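for the writeup, i need someone to sanity check this before i put it in the appendix. the sequnce is what the collaborator sent (i think, or maybe the updated version? ugh). structure was predicted straight from it, no edits. if anything looks off just tell me and ill rerun, i have time this weekend
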Amino acid sequence: TTFETNLPRWGKPNKTMTRVGHNLLAKQQCKKLIALSNCTANFLRTSLADNNHPLADLIESKLLVLHPPQNLILEQKPVSPKSKVEFTLVGSDFFRKGGMEVLTVFDYLKKKGYDNWHLNLVSRMTYGDYASKTTKTDFLEAGKLIDDMSDNITYYKSLENPEVLQLLKKTDVGLLPTYAD
């Protein structure tokens, strides 16, 4: 199986269900556990250690990190002086992807007089997810921050994939924070 957060992932974790899940991972039918990142693999390792699972070594031997393949869109980023550093955050689930924290940091920078940056946001700004537990109030607060910094932020509700790739080509720093990974 591939996984991007935790195994087992059966709703609210408890020791009994986690132990049952780990036992299933140890079975012969389970050939490989393919984590999509090192962070994800470490979640499983931590879970095994925290639960002192007797088959942790067997389960660990099945663990493999295999990053999702990505085609290069630039061979090398051209280095040239720019008046502003270009940041981009792309994610439909804005709050679960750390969007509010990103806005808070840029608001802080702006208030301190640092405005040699530009932030591209591509998001439907959905809220109320399981990780961030945000509300409409958070949504409205984020909207106000975006409006207040509109000279430094370009907001797109959505873009087609080719347009996102073009945006990323002119980006200096891609922002990938997230609550759940």
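The beta strands are 2-3, 33-35, 63-65, 85-90, 117-122, 153-156, 173-174. The mean pLDDT is 89.
thx in advance!!
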